[in-house]
Amino acid sequence: MSKTVRVQEVVPYSLLARGYDRVMAYVDYSAWACYVHRLIQRFLPGASSLLELGCGTGSLALALQPMGPYRYHATDRSAAMLAVAREKAACSNSPVVFTEADFTNYRVAEPVDVVLLLFDGLNYVLEPEGICALLRSTHAALRPGGLFIFDQSTPANSLGREADFEDAGETEAFRYVRRSRYDPVRRLHTTLFELEIGGQRYRERHVQRAYTQREIEALLKTQAFQIEAAYDNFSYRPATETSERIHWVVRRIS
Ligand SMILES: C[S@@+](CC[C@H](N)C(=O)[O-])C[C@H]1O[C@@H](n2cnc3c(N)ncnc32)[C@H](O)[C@@H]1O
User: Domain range holding 52?
Assistant: First the structure.
């Protein structure tokens, strides 16, 4: 008789955090940071206070902060991701401050020049009302004229190379199997991470929604934001409905 292996469901990122950087090793955060730095220079030269939302383990923050005279505050709702970010910041003597916050409902003590939200954070918001709440909080967090720079992964990305993806690997913290499925009708992208730690198996279920460019544009109009640019995937070409990742630069106008 085969033994039933119990898989314990845990909160997204609570265990993945310890091996996240290894699982995401293909991401070139220095190149991403250069691109974001150039966007800031182009649209708000002289910006000095940055707030990053959904910062994860802080890889972008630690690469971007030294590129300018940036006072950098980074937030995430996952305590486990922030713990890794703080360890990395301490090792590199970084002045970036990390705190826990849900980006759909947050406040800042002082308005900032630039708010950032990169690498699919927005896609974790499953309902348009949640995006409106994120935009409301972000509008209030920016000084007039300040920028919100964010990206989104699109249905074209989910339908393309990321659909029905599967891989497996090992980090210092766990062995993992990652299975990704896309439901094109509901436009929900579900990634299951099965993690094995010391003989025990755990599962994290990450659900993201693929919004279209038009949907995000319409939601931006619910707040006093002016769209400065919607770029195709780390370029300066205008995004189209076939873009897999869109980088938005929007400005608080009042
Ligand atoms: C794909 S990871 C990206 C992390 C990081 N930006 C990077 O580039 O590696 C998405 C991050 O968004 C965070 N997140 C998702 N929803 C959130 C919310 N409502 N408020 C704050 N953080 C959130 C998760 O905890 C996770 O760290």
Answer: 21-154+211-252
Helix axes 213-220 and 128-141, enclosed angle (nearest 10): 50
> Are 32 and 78 found together in one domain?
yes
Task: Report which of 107, 88, 106, 109 is spatially closest to residue 98, judged by C-alpha positions.
Answer: 88
Mark whether 141 and 184 lie in a shared domain. Answer: no
- CB of 124 sitting under 6 A from ligand 1: yes
Q: State yes or no: pLDDT of 169 exceeds 60.
A: yes
For residue 4, report the distance from its CA to the centre of ligand 1, in Å. 33
- Using the structure block, give the residue that is written with the tokens 């869109």: 246
- How close is the Cα of 56 to the center of ligand 1, in Å? 5
- Check whether residue 30 and residue 133 sit in a common domain: yes
Please tell me the distance between residue 218's alpha carbon and the centre of ligand 1 in angstroms: 23
Are 177 and 68 contained in the same domain? no
Is-contact 151 27, C-beta < 8 A? no
Confidence bin at 81 (pLDDT 50/70/90): very high
Q: Are both 167 and 201 inside the same structural domain? A: yes
Tell me the two tokens of residue 172.
Answer: 């210092």
Are 189 and 108 found together in one domain? no
Q: How many domains does the chain have?
A: 2
Inside any domain, residue 1: no
- In sequence order, the β-bridge partners of residue 203 are 9, 194
99-112 per-position pLDDT tens digit: 999 999 999 999 99
Question: 162 pLDDT band (50/70/90 cuts)?
Answer: low
Ligand 1 neighbourhood includes 120 CB (under 6 angstroms): yes
According to DSSP, the residues that pair with 4 across neighbouring strands are none
pLDDT 10s digits, 196-211: 999 999 999 999 999 9
